[in-house]
Amino acid sequence: MRNLRLKLSFDGAAYHGWQIQSNAVTVQGTVEEAVEKIFGSHLTVYGCSRTDSGVHANEYFCNFKTEKSAIPAENAVKALNGILPPDIAVLQCDEEDPEFHSRYDCKSKEYIYKIWNSSIKNPFFANRAYQYKYTLDEVNLNEAAKSYIGTYDWSAFCASGSSVKSTVRTVINAEVLRQGDFVIFKFEADGFLYNMVRIMAGTLIYVNEGKIDKSSIKDIILSGDRDNAGFTAPPEGLYLNRVEY
Amino acid sequence: MRNLRLKLSFDGAAYHGWQIQSNAVTVQGTVEEAVEKIFGSHLTVYGCSRTDSGVHANEYFCNFKTEKSAIPAENAVKALNGILPPDIAVLQCDEEDPEFHSRYDCKSKEYIYKIWNSSIKNPFFANRAYQYKYTLDEVNLNEAAKSYIGTYDWSAFCASGSSVKSTVRTVINAEVLRQGDFVIFKFEADGFLYNMVRIMAGTLIYVNEGKIDKSSIKDIILSGDRDNAGFTAPPEGLYLNRVEY
After folding, report:
1. What is the per-residue pLDDT across B132-173, written as a single tens digit (0 to 9) for each?
2. What's the rounded Cα separation, in Å, for the pair B87 and B34?
3. Which long-range contacts (C-beta less than 8 Å, at least 24 apart) are formed by B130-135?
4. Does B107 score more than 90 pLDDT?
5. Which is nearest to B56 in space by CA: B25, B90, B87, B101?
6. Scanning A102, A110, A176, B161, which has its CA 20 to 30 A from the CA of A207?
7. What is the secondary structure of chain A as a DSSP string?
8. Which phi and psi angles does B61 have, rounded to 5°?
9. How far is B144 from chain A (nearest CA, A)?
């Protein structure tokens, strides 16, 4: 039994997230169709993360098991890219141990939240960045972001309706940087709760607007109350950026 | 009679070029619909250039005349952007003299041809750059591009079937530069023939491949024979970049 891991990159604008759905086009569904064509049978492709509708990935890992096919891993990259649409790319394919699982074996993930910080409409980033018209103070927000670093119960930064065993996560890094008219929020953690990155992003935007004081971020986390944190920033700015195993 | 000039920017991936067609979605058709909603009647919008299907614009000008509407030019920007799809942006709106015409009054145009110069599939630039897998030598190509500068009959760089009065154009600037994994060809002229920029780009790619010697570019221009120039590079790399009046 071979266990193949794919490293993907995708523009999520046209997809209803990763996870397969019966009546919507998803990244998982699209990748499973391509895998079926190349590997000869329908195989479940396990993803490293359930991404929301419209969310992108600079790096995303998934894996699937096959008994039948002897296609070398390096040939699979070209074959899959030839079938997949232009907005999903296979960057690498590796043979893994039989026990490897893209999601459960992941040690940490880094997300970026990309903001087109300008009042000017940008037709090239319409679905690839969140437009925010008022000037973001990246130095101040970078200081504010440092309050996210640490091990906490992140219930205040989790969408309601989520059912996870533990809401404790360790944020390893949090930073804010400017690249011209773009501002990038970068968050790394051992795992993220549902909508956690988008609420972390929305809270920093509230800090910029003076609606939340940066000195109170720790208290908001400790309160465990979703109402105290900022808004859920929209999906188009969110990119899974790096996954560590 | 007011004559309003719009400065646009658009991602052309979803459009069959600028010029209105009965059975295809075009930039002109989409802009005319938005103008009709804001200005209250159907008005012909005159563009500065007929762009091909899939071609983009960082800067594009068009104009239209209205007798009825008193909407201030500065308000039109916001109103039109609210109606236009995310991939077409109005950046500016100015009152012009009654005789002004976006196309006939244009003094020069600058196009860029954007190449994703990597063997790795890039899902974020699938329709926004031309992927070329083999390393482009931007220093050598920049030297080669200088041969384009001057006033010539550009028949060798014009798609057949084009019917223009004169095939003489003056290329003011031609350069090649690298930005990380992107290579940019930049061409400025008082005007371009049909497919001229894409043939200029394809000819530089042939120079990189050793199919055309850079010392023979002048001879190819002077030959007037389309067969001597390189291939017509695909539309997804082409951007109208700047228009001077």
Report:
1. 999 999 999 999 999 999 999 999 999 877 678 899 999 999
2. 13
3. B130/B201, B130/B233, B130/B234, B130/B236, B130/B237, B132/B183, B132/B205, B134/B208, B134/B209
4. yes
5. B87
6. A110
7. -EEEEEEEEE-GGGSS-SS--SSS--HHHHHHHHHHHHHSS----EES--PPTT-EEEEEEEEEEESS----HHHHHHHHHHHS-TTEEEEEEEEE-TT--TTTT--EEEEEEEEE-SSS--TTSTTTSEE--SPP-HHHHHHHHGGG-EEEE-GGGS-TT---S--EEEEEEEEEEEETTEEEEEEEES---TTHHHHHHHHHHHHHTTSS-GGGHHHHHHHT-GGGS-----GGGEEEEEEE-
8. -115, 145
9. 30
**CA-angle at A218, arms to A217 and A220, nearest 5°:** 65
Q: Which residue has the tokens 């017509």?
A: B232
pLDDT digits (tens, 9 = 90+) for B108-123: 999 999 999 999 999 9
Residues of B in contact with A9 (CB under 8 A): 121-124
The stretch A231-236 carries a mean pLDDT of 97
Per-window interface: A 64-83 vs B, CB < 8 A: 81
C-alpha to C-alpha distance for B5 and B100, rounded to whole angstroms:
9
- Non-local (6+) Cβ contacts of A114 within 8 A are A125, A128, A129, A130, A182, A184, A237, A238, A239
Residue A84 has pLDDT above 80, yes or no: yes
Q: If residue B199 lies in a helix (H) or strand (E), which one and from where to where?
A: helix B196-208
The residue of A116, A124, A133 whose CB has the most chain B CBs within 10 angstroms, and thus the best one to mutate to test that interface, is: A124
Helix (H, G, I), strand (E, B) or coil at B86: coil
Q: What dihedral do alpha carbons B216, B221, B225, B226 form, nearest 10°?
A: 90
Helix (H, G, I), strand (E, B) or coil at B242: strand
Look up A137 and say whether it is catalytic: no
The pTM of the full predicted model, rounded to 2 decimals, is: 0.91
- Of A115, A161, A165, A108, residue with least CA distance to A138: A115
Cβ atoms of residues B35 and B45 within 8 Å: yes
Q: What is the pLDDT of residue A164?
A: 81
Euclidean distance between CA atoms B54 and B231, whole angstroms = 18
Amino acid of residue A6? L
Find residues 39-58 of chain A whose CB sits inside 8 Å of chain B.
56
ipTM score assigned to the predicted complex: 0.90
Supply the pLDDT for residue B67.
87
Rounded to whole angstroms, how far apart are CA atoms A72 and B72?
A: 64
